[in-house]
Amino acid sequence: METAILTIKIYGNVERALSSASFMLENELKDLDAKAEVSLGPDGWLQVAATGDDGEFAINFLKEKFGTPVTYVDDKAVYRGFISSIDEDGITVDIGISLKIPSSELSVLGAGTCPQIASRFGLIPYLPVYIRVLKQDNGTFASFTKKQVDLFWSWKKLPTDRLTVNSVTRSELKSAIKKKGHGRDIYGIERLGLLENLVVCREKTDGPGIVAEIGPLLNAEIGVIKGTR
Fold it and tell me: Which pLDDT tens digits describe the chain residue by residue (229 residues)?
């Protein structure tokens, strides 16, 4: 049996999150002779064990795709992690260790304080992101990769609003939207992570209005990206 810890956060309803993880990994490995068993690993990371003739290949494939939490970092290397907190001084990202993206590194996302920038781009806790390590004389910090920054701007520059939502599965989010009669007001839901999703609104749909409707149905944090109309 091959095992690994993946850079996938398990939080909120742990049983539901593990069930969703099992389904997701089953789909990822559908073409292999391998079966994945999931469990809650250290610090809330997803632990996976794979059995079958392709078990070793499956584990290596999953580690390559999702990454593994780290205990040390290399200068200028790129890592996948999750936003853990946002404050006036910057955005903290958990990659196995916590690294701060200082406010000075957020100028690529426009003017304003760190909370203002985060609000503008729908940045919320547990949002999966890619960062680059910056080792300086006064410590080790991080910045968003250019690809990540370009993705944020692509959301902002499109003419329709978008919502970032954490702590819910795609099916739960879709159910809440339909229950409030807003199925026709969105183009669809994009999976950003295991429990993190992006709702793409239709033209003339007001993102904050959707949040006001579905928010009470979801135990989740929701960010809004206002489109450029």
Answer: 889 999 999 999 999 999 999 999 999 999 999 999 999 999 999 999 999 999 999 999 999 999 999 999 998 899 999 999 999 999 999 999 999 999 999 999 999 999 999 999 999 999 999 999 998 777 899 999 999 999 999 999 999 999 999 999 999 999 999 999 999 999 999 999 999 999 999 999 999 999 999 999 999 999 999 998 7
Q: Please report which residue ranges of 50-93 form alpha helices under DSSP H.
A: 55-66
pTM over 0.85: yes
**221 CB-near residues (< 8 Å, 6+ apart):** 124, 125, 126, 165, 166, 167
Contact of 58 with 52, CB cutoff 8 Å? yes
